[in-house]
Specification:
single chain; about 90 residues; 4 strands; alpha+beta; about 30% helix; Chitinase A, domain 3
């Protein structure tokens, strides 16, 4: 079964997600922003979700992780939880 490792930042609005994306693309540290701004408990690990298999995450998140470019900032990705910025670090 396909698997991936990824990290993410979860926020309530698309506007905030776009703002954070701009900050990261301008050189801000992903992990620091995750710690300070993400609403997901993974923020304590810099947004790191570890390794997971295809189908373990909600559909929209799963699709972005398994079709998006590696080591690229993906998003905003809207799910029932809010808006995500995702960085897929490995996929196999």
């Amino acid at each position: 079964m396909p698997s991936a490792t990824a990290r993410h930042i979860l926020v309530a609005t698309e506007e905030e997600c776009l703002e954070l994306k701009e900050e990261i693309e301008a050189g801000a540290d992903f992990a620091r922003i995750a710690l300070n701004r993400s609403s997901c408990p993974s923020r304590m690990q810099g947004g790191d979700l570890g390794t997971f298999a295809r189908g373990q995450m909600v559909k929209e998140f799963d699709e972005a992780v398994f079709t998006g470019e590696l080591n690229t900032l993906l998003g905003p990705v809207r799910t029932m939880f809010g808006y995500h910025l995702i960085e897929v670090t490995k996929r196999w």
